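FORM 7B - TANDEM STRUCTURE REPORT

SECTION 1: FIRST PROTEIN
SEQUENCE AND TOKENS:
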Amino acid sequence: MTRIILTLFMTFILITGLTGCGRDGSGGNEETELNVFMMNPDMYMESFLSSYSGEEGLVTTNVEMGMTNPNMEVGDVLKLLNTRLMSDDGPDIIVMDDINADGYIESGQLADLSDIISKSNDLINPLKEQDDEIYYVPLSFGVIADSKSTGAAVDFEDMEKYVSSLKAQGLKSGNFENTAVLWYKTEIEPIIKEKNNLSKEELTGFYENVKELMTVTEWYGRNPARASLYPGTFMVNPLIEYWDIYADKIGAARSYITNISDLHQLYHAKNEGKLEFSYGKADGETVYIPTCIIAVNNNSKNKDAAFEMVEYMLSEEGQKDVAQNGGYLPVNYKVLRDELENCPETNVNINGVGSILKPFTANDIDEIMEVIKNLEYEAYSDSYLMEIILTGAADYGNGDETLDSAVEKAMNKLKIYLTE
């Protein structure tokens, strides 16, 4: 129902907004106020985006959150956003992280950014290899690090083998929510994307694996140990779980790597011989997770200023800002290498572990850049779909629903989602 409403809203906006499809609106040397919409709270992303003031310092950027209440559902947030768009009161820029862009693109709501992309140099391959028309672009990205204690026989091939291998050795896994969401992104989403379907058996197996994952998780004092896989918790957070492996608190972790500091600490632990890691895969392809994905409202009154913001964010200067002030991995290949090469020796004390992080070695940098060069699988999620699958997983894992009941409810919602 939510997606039907979305399509109707977008169609109405397209019909009523055809006269405003050119590059018009405020920009240049005028004082301009840009409004940016984000689905989920992220204080670093919010701070970074709101700091943008334009070339002349005349732009004020306001960032607003969709999930302002932990009890809100994804559908409720989208309804509010679409109502504003229909009343011509929509944001100038939409952060599309975990928002399905298809309905917005089909209805002409998002402006084409291909001209800006074509003028942006040194972008990572996934951005250069897109179609002629591009309606959203990530300013940063993350990768998955599958880490384990040195010598531990932990199998990251799939979730079932991961849990079984930990059980066999009496080892603990890191943060539950991150781990479950990342396995969802690499196991369940690929099936749905490829088949436009998910069998009852496949969903049942995933729910059983989630419950088993709870038994091998280090809960860090959380009592009771309950899964929290509900709307508002789907944005995986970078956690320094490799330090828990370093200190022998856990045996393995599937972590989310989003910035130079993450890589610096991870490679330090690896070079110290404390852990081993590989980059996470889906369907045999190295995964990258686009972040801070921005799109321009095609009916924005400040479209030129919004285009200028996107162009700046993808420029070399803007990408340095993304890395140095936003704290993210930039999508500019040259800037990323420069940041790695200029990363200084750093003193750190994390979880009671004190260390001196030496600069990246030439081999470290070459390995990282080779991985980035060969990123293949884009894990771009839809929060509405995640809500359907992961809410049922949490309900079963926490004992609030039987397996059959949780699967049946999720399958009914999934069938509606896939046929709309």
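SECTION 2: SECOND PROTEIN
SEQUENCE AND TOKENS:
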Amino acid sequence: MSMMVVFTQAMPLFGARSLAAVRRLATDAKGAVAVGKFHSPIVDALWAVRHAESADDRAADDDAVGAGPTPKHADASRTVARYDFVSNPMLAEQYRNPYGLVRIGRVLEDLDALAGTIAFKHTRPRAPKHLMLVTASVDRIALLHNCDTASDMRLSGYVAWVGRSSMVLKLNAYSDGVFGGAQPWLEADFTFVARDPATQKSAPIDPLELRTEAERAIFSRVAAKVERDRAQRAAPPCAQANAAATAQLVAAALPAVLMPALSDPTTVLMSDTRQTNAFVCQPQHRNTQDRIFGGLLMRRAFELAYATAFLFSGSKPQFIEVDRVQFVAPVEVGDLLMFDARVLYTTPKRTVRESTRAVVVLPPEVHVEIIAHVVRPGQHTSRHVNTTMITFALPEAETVKRVLPTSSDEAQRVLARIAADETRDE
């Protein structure tokens, strides 16, 4: 019995092929093991299909494959992955965390694999022979409701917006035990870019065919957000205001630095929240392009962030959202990868009024930044590869310490993150 069932919108993702048959197609001529087998069952299934379809596309006629971008509807690449937790206790056990809920880190891996599969399907048959698809960023992964493994679950996703050489995918997670499976318990946005494999320059992506007003509305909303993000990245910060705010933050930390025995017990220096983790990237960590799987990097960053928030607060954190993952450079097999996590800032317990005029008490929050570097000790060099921002709530805590940056660099990172969070919430 297979460990899951994976469906597209109307038919099994494997078509008439069994999972075993697809895995055989995904194995190269030398008999190498398909790399997905070293990851989760869902990743294995998604990558096996991608391998098999890539083989079909590579064998296709060059005139057909290289004909150029062709408009496609979202249904052509819409994909659903189902987790049969109820009938398969072994699968459920692989996704259960110590508190009986779904392991978010595992889901992050699967979301990345699902997003890559959708992007691949949208650009078939030009990818992978004429296009190289790269995850540029994860713009947001938000938890809407807790989910356990007592009910079956599914992930689904589709292409929501396409520019010249980039596309935004919307992904959702559903559970039969949450809202009856009718509404998502988690939602995510992924951005992919296309590169020409020969020149490494940007390459055009197949346009998105829009058929309904609802599809046009989603496209317009995503397009507006893409433009806002682009303008925000291009806009230079106000140097004078930024310098004053930076100096104020650093000055607040001076008493704790100069007189640590007399420091305010409700504050902590940012450097004292730091946690690190390092490991050598193994061949089993690679993806279908023989580079380290981005989903694995997100899971490792999430797990370190969770531990950092727990050690900092002394209270069990509850995941709220991945604010952003910015992939700067690829990670290769054999690289020594170091994660550096620290609490950037905290938000105290507060009362807010929602649009329904209901008053809601929100628990304290911890905002953790995780920076990943590839380090080369023998060469005394390092290279920044990605940055992840994750927010946790502290539902069992009444208070949370204020974090004090001690350098201009730390203070500027805090200010930039707060500004980005405020802009996102508008």
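SECTION 3: OBSERVATIONS ON SECOND PROTEIN
The chain is about 30% helix and 30% strand.
Residues 1-5, 7-32 have pLDDT under 50 and may be disordered.

SECTION 4: SIGNATURE
Preparer initials: ____
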